[in-house]
Every structure is written in structure tokens, then in C-alpha cells.
Write a structure and sequence with these properties.
Layout lengths: L8 E4 L6 H31 L6 H18 L2 H7 L6 E3 H34 L4 H4 L2 H27 L8 E2 L6 H5 L7 H32 L5 H29 L9 H22 L2 H17 L1
Parallel strand pairs: 1-3
Antiparallel strand pairs: 1-2
């Protein structure tokens, strides 16, 4: 990657400099990361091999779990390793790669959440046309478009990052590389760069959140015309989706849709949506979804019986 600076590496400050707290960070986030990978992999494998989870909702859940695993992997392993390292050094190229991965899989998660909302809207509000509108071919096209959109977004972040010149301090006051902490080190006027950042990442987060909330409001409003059993099932599914949306978009909007100011809680907010949310998503979707739980029981029961 072509550098626009004299800095070849950065030092990550991490979450804390206290040795005892660093050990706690190592243990806690190792557990969180392992739980994230195991939980999302379990969902991926279950959906892949289960015959009962072939609907579009689970097709999108498959990709949400995949994006969650990759999103967490873009930051968690380095945070865990750096917690027990004497000095947390990351090269310029590694830093830029981390920015790309963070935004690629983060944006993919946003798009998949939108597709899941569209799927629920069609299933509940247009039930007779649902098989035609949400056919497997349409779902595949939508996922491909989501990947393309995510790639374009993350590429835009890289273009902004590569324009930043670094000629002085190289201490990043964060546990990972992202544009916000990098902007603080740039030796240039960052007003236009930050404006582009807010209009890109900030606009995606904010507009997507508003769109999702409106869609779920419409869905919940339309449930009045359904039977009691239908309302209960749809409400359970939509509630899971709404919880995930709020948990992810709340911190995302707080981080990206604001002027270049720093708050003491920035790191913890970033931890919540990069590591906490991917860890919670499998729990939310399995504990509140009887179909997924039953499919898991049947699948792993068959595996055990065959062995």
C-alpha cells in the first residue's frame, strides 16, 4: 500500500495499561471471542445441514453469523494478543488492512440486517406473494449486492485512510485501527476527511437504523390482522431482530455519526459493537427461536447417533 507519511508502524494503547487489568482483558475477551466463533459456527453448520431451515430468513441468518464471526475476528485476536504483549505494535499495512476488514464485515452485517427486515416485511405483509418475491434466486442476488456494497464502502474508507499523512506521534489511543483514532494523528486539516467519513459511515448507520425501525413498526402494526398464534410467532421473530438492531446500531451511530470529538467511553462502546454484539447475536437468535433450537437438537442428535 502506498504510504502518504513517514510513519511505518503504530503503537496501540489498548484498553488499559495496568498489568492486572490486561490479564483480565486477556481472559475475558478470549472467552468472548471463543464464544462468538463457536456460537456463530454452530448456527452456520446447523443452517447448512438442516432440512427444516431452508427459508430465506435462515439463508440471511447464515450470512449474518458469517459476518459476525469475521467482524469479531478483525479486532478480537489482536486485542487478546496485545493484552499480554509488552508493546502493541502494528505496521502501517496491517493497520490499513484492519480498517478494510472492520468496515467490510461491519457494513455487510448492516446490509444483512436490512435484508432480514425486508424478508420479515414480505412474509408478514405480503404472505401470498412471499415465495415469488423472496425466491432463492432473488436472495442470492441480494446477498451478492450486499457484498458488493460492503466492498465499495470499505474501499472508500481505505481511500480516505491512505490520504492521511502521518509525520509525528504514532500512538493510537485505541485497541484497533479505525479512521477516527487515525484522524487524531494526521498532520493535516481533517475537516473534509471527517465530513466524508460522517457522510459515508455515519450516513449508512443512521439511515439504515431509521429504515429498519420504520419497517419493523409497519410490520408490528400489520400484525393486528393476523391470528393470535401468527402474531405470537411473528412477534417473537421480530423482537429478536429488533434487539439485534438496537444493540448494533446504537454504538455504531454513537461512534461514526458525530464530529471528530473524543469521549472517555469510546473504547468501551467500540468493544460492545465489535466484540459484544457478535457474541450476543447467536444467543439471541437461538434462545428466542424454537425452530433453530429444534434443528440444532435434531442435527447433533443424528451426529451423535451415527458416531
Amino acid at each position: 500500500m502506498k504510504q502518504n507519511s513517514s510513519v511505518t508502524e503504530f503503537i496501540l494503547s489498548g484498553l488499559t495499561q495496568d498489568p492486572l487489568k490486561q490479564k483480565m482483558v486477556f481472559v475475558i475477551f478470549l472467552i468472548f471471542y471463543m464464544g462468538t466463533v463457536v456460537g456463530n459456527t454452530l448456527i452456520i453448520v446447523t443452517i447448512k445441514f438442516s432440512r427444516t431451515l431452508g427459508s430465506p430468513m435462515y439463508f440471511f441468518l447464515f450470512y449474518l453469523s458469517f459476518a459476525d464471526s469475521c467482524f469479531s475476528t478483525s479486532t478480537a485476536p489482536r486485542l487478546i494478543v496485545d493484552a499480554i504483549s509488552k508493546k502493541s505494535i502494528i505496521s502501517y499495512n496491517e493497520c490499513i488492512t484492519q480498517v478494510f476488514a472492520l468496515h467490510l464485515f461491519g457494513c455487510m452485517e448492516i446490509f444483512v440486517l436490512i435484508l432480514m427486515a425486508v424478508d420479515r416485511y414480505v412474509a408478514i405483509c405480503k404472505p401470498l406473494r412471499y415465495p415469488v418475491i423472496m425466491s432463492r434466486q432473488v436472495c442470492v442476488i441480494l446477498i451478492v449486492l450486499a457484498w458488493i456494497g460492503s466492498f465499495i464502502h470499505s474501499t472508500a474508507q481505505i481511500v480516505l485512510a491512505l490520504r492521511l499523512p502521518f509525520c509525528g506521534p504514532n500512538l493510537i489511543d485505541h485497541y484497533c485501527c479505525d479512521l477516527q483514532p487515525l484522524l487524531k494523528l494526521a498532520c493535516m486539516d481533517i475537516y473534509m476527511i471527517n465530513l466524508l467519513l460522517v457522510s459515508n459511515s455515519g450516513a449508512i448507520c443512521s439511515s439504515s437504523f431509521v429504515l429498519l425501525m420504520i419497517s419493523y413498526f409497519v410490520i408490528l402494526h400489520s400484525l393486528r390482522n393476523h391470528s393470535a398464534e401468527g402474531r405470537k410467532k411473528a412477534l417473537s421473530t421480530c423482537t429478536s431482530h429488533i434487539i439485534v438492531v438496537i444493540l448494533f446500531f446504537g454504538p455504531c451511530i454513537f461512534i461514526y455519526a458525530r464530529p471528530p470529538t473524543t469521549f472517555p467511553m469510546d473504547k468501551m462502546v467500540a468493544v460492545f459493537y465489535t466484540i459484544g454484539t457478535p457474541f450476543l447475536n447467536p444467543l439471541i437468535y437461538t434462545l428466542r427461536n424454537a425452530e433453530v433450537k429444534n434443528a440444532m437438537k435434531k442435527l447433533w442428535h443424528v451426529k451423535i447417533m451415527t458416531e
